[in-house]
Amino acid sequence: MSVPQPSRGQWSSQLGFILAAAGSAVGLGNIWRFPYMAGKNGGGAFILVYLLCVIGLGLPVMLVEISLGRATQKNAVGAIEAVAPGSRWKALGYLAMLTGLGILSYYSVIAGRVLACCESYVVSGFSPTADLASAGLGSDVVYFFVFLALTVFVVAGGVQRGIERWAKVLMPMLLLIMAAIIVRGLMLPGAGAGVRWLLEVDFSKIHLDTILDAMAQAFFSLSLGMGAMLTYGSYLSKRQNILTSGAWVVTFDTAIAILAGFMIFPAVFAFGHDPAAGPALIFGVLPEVFRAMFGGGVVGAVFFFLICVAALTSTVSLLEVITAYFVDERGWSRRRAVLAIGAVTFLVGLPSALDFAGIAPWNRIAFLGQTGFLSIMDFIWGNLSLAVGSLLLCLFVAWVWGIRNASDEIASTSPAFRKIAPVWQFTVTWVAPAAILAILLTLVL
Ligand code: TRP
Asked: In which residue ranges of the chain is pLDDT below 50?
């Protein structure tokens, strides 16, 4: 995909971009992280704040990243260099890569567990007996390694055609199977309490950390704040519409997150689980739903398989950001880049894997209000760093590249954008930076 400049890859069509970007956006962020964050933050109130963040910050930042990528046709570091040669802003590009590595390291641990779940459904003849919420022993490390290797393998081959092809078939399948699981979950006795919990907004539950979690979850779920959408936007041709593509990705991703809420929480309440169980939430709850379903073993296997693929199209985008830099800017071969980055990611992710397996002494350590190594990594990279990255990207585009230039880039293929451009410009220049900064500051002060 990101072959050196003259023959740089491009999406074959606008749909190709939408599918690849949606493939990056839709992943464990929707199925695993959104329910775990909503559970931790009290349900309906969190969802309301989340939706506000998606519309008020997510969509504007999405357009920031895609327009910068398409205008420069470069990777995260290269795009900044192209706009502001030799400036300190380059550090933002490096922060983006570091964040990508941080997220990739623990994300692959969770994805590895999903893979393990899928396997245990298949090898047990679709009725697993193991406790999937606490896989334990070395298996989390092994599956983490396998999943990371899969990611390395896909990115080594160049991701463009592969992703376009997979996403077309698998996304609709994922939607269908989620619909089936939702219907079964809603029929469970006691499920109504979960629906109420999702829809009832208890304003007393909205605290500052709720707002930070919701804002960061919006960035995380939409793959914003570390140059992933920038890099994907750089493979977008000058004829394609940034506004409608971005809006589709945001809509699709948000719909899947909300559906995941309706898939998990009715069952959480029906089976008496704790909504605030943390990162292991879905692994404890979903197998119980599958057990209650007709043909649930097969549904479980297919579901975990689809989530694995959804996670893979996301990890691919994380690894691609870092790879594109070493290939474009340092002249490394793609193979060498992915192997080296993969090896480093494995080492960085090892403590998370041992933590998630429950066999490390550091699963009780606390830092920044989080308990456990994996949760702490998720907080640092998935919350703080994405918020900082989004903030700096807005400032860079608004003040260094120039908000007019960014607007023109979007409007060049989307005349309709002219109408909303003033609102977007004001948001990116003032509202988004101020809001993100305020939320981050209140956290430290
Ligand atoms: N958005 C993905 C998910 O929800 C995760 C992800 C992929 C991501 N690429 C990213 C998150 C870039 C932040 C930045 O599963």
From this structure: 1-7
DSSP state of 32: I
Q: Is 160 in the pocket of ligand 1 (CB under 6 A)?
A: no
Say if CB 50 and CB 214 are below 8 A apart: yes
| pTM exceeding the 0.90 threshold for the entire prediction | yes
**Residue 279 — φ and ψ, nearest 5°?**
-55, -20
Structural domain count of the chain: 1
Q: Is residue 399 part of a domain?
A: no
- Rounded to the nearest 10 degrees, what angle do helices 139-156 and 296-328 cross at? 50
Predicted confidence (pLDDT) per residue in 377-427, tens digit: 999 999 999 999 999 999 999 999 999 999 999 999 999 999 999 999 999
Does residue 72's CB lie within 6 angstroms of at least one atom of ligand 1? no
**For residue 156, what is the domain's CATH number?**
1.10.4160.10
Q: Is the CB of 389 under 6 A from ligand 1?
A: no
Contact present, 263 and 178 (Cβ < 8 Å): yes
Minimum CA distance residue for ligand 1 atom 12: 223
Of 33, 147, 221, 322, which is best to mutate to test ligand 1, by the most ligand atoms within 8 angstroms of its C-beta?
A: 221
- 316 vs 23: CA distance, rounded Å: 9
